[in-house]
Specification:
This protein has a five-stranded mixed beta sheet. About 40% of the residues are buried. The protein is an alpha+beta fold. The N and C termini lie far apart (about 65 Å). It is globular, with a radius of gyration of 19 Å. It has one domain (about 25-250): Ribosomal Protein S5, domain 2. The protein has helices at about 95-110, 135-150, 175-180, 205-250; strands at about 10, 15, 25-30, 40-45, 50-60, 70-80, 120-130, 160-165, 170, 185-190, 195-200, 200-205. It binds adenosine-5'-diphosphate.
Length: about 250
Amino acid sequence: MASDKDMKLIEDGTRLDGRDFDELRDISIKAGVLKRADGSAYLEWGKNKIMAAVYGPREMHPRHAQETTKAVVRARYNMAAFSVPDRKRPGPDRRSIEISKLVSEALEKVVFTEKYPRSVIDVFVEVLQASAGTRCGGLTAASVALADAGIPMSDLVASCASGKIEGQVVLDLGKNEDNYGQADVPVGYIPRTGEICLLQMDGNLTEEEYEEAMDMTIDACKEIYEIQKEALKEKYSTELEEANLDEVIKEA
Ligand code: ADP
């Protein structure tokens, strides 16, 4: 995180992109976009574009990685070479390994893994275009893809970050805010139970600022949860309509 003196991020009480301090960037999610995956979701969040695909549950290979009492949720986060202004070197790096691990752990909290011993549920998060907040976007999309795959889950995970720029606590940091801000706190939230399944902090916040940031984030996660549920409803109502149409055609 670069120095906050490098760039002006708040002018006349508003952020560079015109958002209020507690305002999310625009988010849209579409479920079931890939034919060959068991489940999928495509998410746009501000300038972020992220695809999530789920395969499984299927037998875990290599076998020594099997868990005898439960399935392993194995997420792989990847940023495409063309996802950032300077070409990103393809392949895993420290950052993508870290994000893959925390996405796996967050999703394991909601999947009923004990139903599928010795299995693996593969979750691929492909960042096609990145503009800050991709771990939150990836986790949000991945949980929709898991539900789309029909994998039994206790709930979805909604994820969002808040942080601090120029001494002000703000929701959902954009790219410049992330680069030149003072703190960034990504959170994964399970709405039904109120549990936190991901919490990281880059930078520093006072106790009061932390409380304020968490309140903002949790409210935002509730908003995101509604968008996730809408995406799933939309997919299944479309499928139902198509199925009904087939019936009508058959009968005609
Ligand atoms: P997140 O995307 O979850 O906010 P980071 O805080 O690590 O994760 O990254 C912030 C942003 O920095 C990313 O969303 C992306 O726009 C940019 N970024 C990350 N890694 C690279 C990279 N290797 N090259 C160029 N930009 C990157």
